[in-house]
Structures are given as C-alpha cells and as structure tokens.
Amino acid sequence: MKYVIVVGSGMADTRLVQLAGKTPMEVLALNSFDRCAGCFCGRVLTIPRGLEARADVALLSILGYDPKVYFNGASVASKLPAFADNFGLQGSVIAADARLRIIAGLMGLKTPEVEGATGTIDTNYEGKVECALKALQDGDDFALVHVGAPETLAADGDLGRKMEAVQNVEYRVVMPLLNRLMGKGEDFRLLLVSDFAAFLTTQKHAAQPMPYAIFDSRVVRRAIDDGKEPPVRKFCEDAMLCEPVLMEGTDLIKVLLEQYMKN
Predict the structure, then answer these.
(1) Which of 75-89, 170-184, 214-228 shows the lowest mean pLDDT across its residues?
(2) Alpha carbon distance 44, 55 (integer Å)
C-alpha cells in the first residue's frame, strides 16, 4: 500500500457575495476532488485551539505531531521523533516553503527540491507530481505534496486567481496523481486536505474544521469489478458540514493509514 497526501494550503474559504453566497470550492467543478470524497470524507481541526493558523503548525498536525508539544509559538522544536519510528513508514515531503522542508527533515523525512516550485500561482505543479511519483517508485511508502498557491492568492484578496489556484491543485496535481497511480495497479490511498481556511474577505487565516477526503483505490476497483460507477461526492466546505469532526488533527494520519480507533 502506498500513501499520498495533497495539502492545498488555504483552499477553504467562506461564502462570498461575488459567488452568490458560495465558496470557491463550492462553485468550481473539481471532479478529482469529488472522486476522493466519494470514497471517504470528513472534517478535521488541523490547528489546535489557541494556535495561529499557519502552514507549519498544520503540517505538524497532519503528520501526527501535536503542535502544542512541538511548536513554541514562533518556531518548531529543534528535534522531533522520527516519523518512521511513529508510523513505520519512510516518505518524502515536497514543498516550496523552506519552513515545511525543515520540519520534515527534523522528522527524518526526505525533502527533495523541485525546480520552479515557488509556492505561488506559477509553481511547478507537474514537477511536484513527478517528484512524488518518483519517491514512491524508488521505495518511499508515502509522499506529501504541499501547494501554497491558494493561500498566497487569498492573502492578495484576488478571487479569480485563488479560484485558478484551486483548479490547478485539482487538475494539475490530484488528477494526474490519481490517474497515474491507478494505472500502476498498486493499492494506494490519497488524502486531500485544506490545512486552514484563507478568507478572501479579510485576507486572513482561520482555524476551523477543514474538509478532507481520502481516495482508496480498492474501493474504486471494487466498484468497477461489480459493474458500478466509482463513487463520487461533492467536495467543499458546505457539503462536509454534516460530517463528524476529528477534533485532534493528529488523528488524521491515523485515518489515512487505517490505524484510527474511535474512543
């Protein structure tokens, strides 16, 4: 089993007057996101109460490290337990943000740099995808791809460009990853998550339950073998409101790895 995590930083937003009371993800046709949500979906609090909504805090949480333990309000602890010791997996984190690569390195994860990865709308999406696929092919158990463009454009208050950035996460990152991995025939699970909300209205971040979805190749192949259409479900903030919330963001990696035990 291989595992992939795609973090669309700041994709989540609030309802906007310009979009008739809907969010960018709600109005966009994001078919690959919907393929993920069709398998499994929910909400997760990636930023613990009292901490600032930022990418480094969320990354700790998403990878199973309690930010309240390892984050002192300004920076991450100089030493972290090895991810391999915690979960028995080797992996890579692919991100333009140097802070995230430093954190991943402290976890003992590989941090390959991708030429042209900028964290903005013109980042090298295809290069990140190829880097993740190569990491998996070369023996990694998982690869995390972080895309910072949606958050960057929200900070600029640019609705059109933020929507373009979200679309890029869908058809230039998630779609090729799903299609290429399905083509290989090996079982895999892909987690899609927005690490925090980045509001266009205020140009600020917000810590609140975030939608997430997990594509499972076994679920899709089973449906196809049974002569059925693979499951799909709209992936957006409003569509997930009825789903339960993982109040501990550190549980998300356990859900992905099928190690989560409800209390």
Answers:
(1) 75-89
(2) 15
155-190: pLDDT as tens digits: 888 899 999 999 999 999 999 999 999 999 999 999
CB of 191 closer than 8 Å to CB of 252: yes
> Domain locations in the chain?
2-256
Distances (CA, A) of 90 to 72, 83, 257: 26, 8, 13
Give CATH for domain 2-256.
3.40.720.10
- CA distances from residue 65 to 86, 87, 205 in whole angstroms, order as listed: 9, 11, 21
| Residue (of 206, 204, 203, 96) closest to 156 by Cα position | 203
- List, in order, residues 6 or more apart from 107 with CB less than 8 Å away: 63, 65, 80, 81, 82, 83
pTM, two decimal places: 0.95
Task: Give the whole-angstrom CA distance, residue 187 versus residue 219.
Answer: 10
Which region holds residue 116: left if phi is over 0, alpha if psi is between -120 and 50, else beta?
Answer: left
For residue 179, the one-letter residue type is N
3-state secondary structure of 85: helix
Contact 215, 190 (CB under 8 A): yes
260's CB contacts (< 8 A; 6+ apart) are 251, 254
Question: In the chain, what is the straight-line distance between the N-terminal and C-terminal CA atoms, in Å?
Answer: 26
